Every structure is written in C-alpha cells, then in structure tokens.
Amino acid sequence: xxxxxxxxxxxxxxxxxxxxxxxxxxxxxxxxxxxxxxxxxxxxxxxxxxxxxxxxxxxxxxxxxxxxxxxxxxxxxxxxxxxxxxxxxxxxxxxxxxxxxxxxxxxxxxxxxxxxxxxxxxxxxxxxxxxxxxxxxxxxxxxxxxxxxxxxxxxxxxxxxxxxxxxxxxxxxxxxxxxxxxxxxxxxxxxxxxxxxxxxxxxxxxxxxxxxxxxxxxxxxxxxxxxxxxxxxxxxxxxxxxxxxxxxxxxxxxxxxxxxxxxxxxxxxxxxxxxxxxxxxxxxxxxxxxxxxxxxxxxxxxxxxxxxxxxxxxxxxxxxxxxxxxxxxxxxxxxxxxxxxxxxxxxxxxxxxxxxxxxxxxxxxxxxxxxxxxxxxxxxxxxxxxxxxxxxxxxxxxxxxxxxxxxxxxxxxx
Length: 414
Hints:
Layout: H1 5-35, E1 51-53, H2 73-84, E2 87-97, E3 103-104, E4 108-119, E5 126-137, H3 139-143, H4 153-177, H5 182-186, E6 205-211, H6 225-244, E7 249-253, H7 260-270, H8 285-289, E8 303-305, E9 320-325, E10 333-338, H9 339-343, H10 347-361, H11 366-375, H12 379-395, E11 401-402, H13 404-409
C-alpha cells in the first residue's frame, strides 16, 4: 500500500477550511449548552427528550466524586486493588474472520475472549480464568441463517454470530460462577466449550463488562425486522439473566459519539424539537461533560436513554441508562447499564469497579483489554487459520481453493 504525501497534503489543504469551520460550530454550541447547563435538572422524562435525568444531581454540584485523595500512583493502585479484592470482574470481547467470496469452501469463524479476574486481598494472590472460545461456520450454517443471499453473509450474518457468541459467552461465564451446570449438559456447544472453573464465593460482587453499547442504534441501518429482533432478543436474554442473579452489567464505550444529553439540553434551551439540522454540530456528551468531570473518577448522574431503537426492545426499552466517568486525561468514557443496576443500589459498585479497573488498564478497564487481546483475529491469525484449514482438508482428500484475484493479493496465505 502506498501513500503519496504530496497528494495528501493537497487534499488536506483543500479541506482544512471546512474542518476548522466545523470545529468552530461545535465550540459555539458548546458555549451555548454550558451557558444553560444549570437547567440540566429540567430534562425529565415527561418532556419527551432523548434523555432524562433519573438519578438526582449532588447538592451544589453536577458530578459524583470518589471522595478519595491519592498522594501518588502507588496509593491509587493500592486503593484500586483493595476495592477489587471483594469483586469478581468478568469481561468478554469478540472478533471474527468473515466469509471470503474468493475462498472455497465458504468458511467463517468467530471467537470470544473472556477474562474472569478474582483479585486477592493482601494475604491471597487471587485467581484468573481466561481464554478463548472459537466457533467455526460453514456453508450449511449459511443455508440455515436468517439472511437472504450470499452477498450479505460477510457483513450481516458473521456480525450477528459474533454478537450472539459474545452474549452467550458472558451468560455461560455467569452460570459457571454461580455453579449452574445443568444448562451446560443440554448446550449444543458442550463438546467444544472451554469454560471450566469453580463457582466463586457468593459473598463477592460479580460485575460484567462488555466492550460496546447496550443501546443497539446500529440496527437502524438494518432494514429487515427479523435481524433487529434477534439482536435485541439475545441482548435482553443476557440482561434478564444478570437481573436474575443481581449482577451489575455495563457496556463500556470509549470515545463515544452519543449526543442524547446535548440534544436534550439544546431542545430545552431553544424550545426547538427539530434537531436534525444541528445534530452533527452539537458537541458529544463526552465532550460536554469533560468540562465538568475534572478529577479522576468523577462521574455524571445516571440518565435514561430514550433513543428510538429502544422502542423495539420488548423488556428493557424503557430501562437502559448511561453515565460518564473520567478515567484519564481524555474525554470521559461512557458506561451503559440497565436500570436494575441503579435500582438495586449497585451503580456505585459498577462505577468504582470500572474506575479501579482503569487504574490497571491505564484509562480503559484492564479485564476488557485482556479479553480483547485474547479474542482479536488479525491478519496473521487469518493466514494461520486458512493454512490449518487447508492442511486438515488435504488430510481428508480436499483443499482450500482461492480465486485468481485472492491468490495474487494474498500469495502467502497457504
């Protein structure tokens, strides 16, 4: 791949004025919203905004603070380790090798990485259970999928299978931690399931962290209702499972582009509901709240989301919210959680656990970073996948066949 520096410089120069003008518009709207931020408590559910305040704001403040002071990094790490010593943090992330129309037979793979971190106290070392859970899909699986037409398989089906596998892995880990083995015996994946660890002390809080959103707005680009329904159904199964076991679950979004708070505050201040013309110029919620979340660990109050996609949820459409928390020098990260976490007095557990995890993960939850490292399937893993596939098929009298185009581009795959 080649990048022509001179051509790039010319393109950027041509676009620079537009980029700077956009940045100025965002700052202008930021000034407007900050000027009226004292009215944020008026963003209530009955107003019909895209967000509403659920948790009261602290007295004379817009943020909740850790109320801890640390003289140095060692004290901060000691606090984080002590807090996590009474908790079990479960993190799951996923990756995939999509179907390639230039490769035959049509094969794809999804893989989850999971991390179960049970930190010890000053007298014990703790335990860590971690690993990968791969699943392979072939032509027969495609024929049984909900999608129509092989042209959609790479984008739609494999993305769904990855999502489903992440959700199922999280659910299975929770079952294992609670000593529930009966469902495993009936599971179709029982022969390939790598999850094998003992139940934990029931006195410990179990916290589940997912990499990504619980508010599936990306589904608005999916036309077929059956596709949207299965995504939502699997998510709500996991949320119901967590609610059953009183497990706080959070979706972690770094560098979030969400604007529920900004749009709601803008509508409140201008008395204007037609948001489409200004939406892309409004600051993100993370950018807006970065002006108020100043100290490490500061978080915003818990707010409900009323995005349109939530109208398609069957169980939790009115019960998913969010807060932002400062964990490094960048914009705060967004944490999404169902309301049963807040109503069950577990919001602070989720908040403090995320903050403590970010101490060891340097601005991102350590367990999620580890799950990602385990799950990721890059170009090297993809090439090794096809080599192994070819070797196995050859031992059975077959082989992997590449198109001429693919052979030219990826001459070293096999």
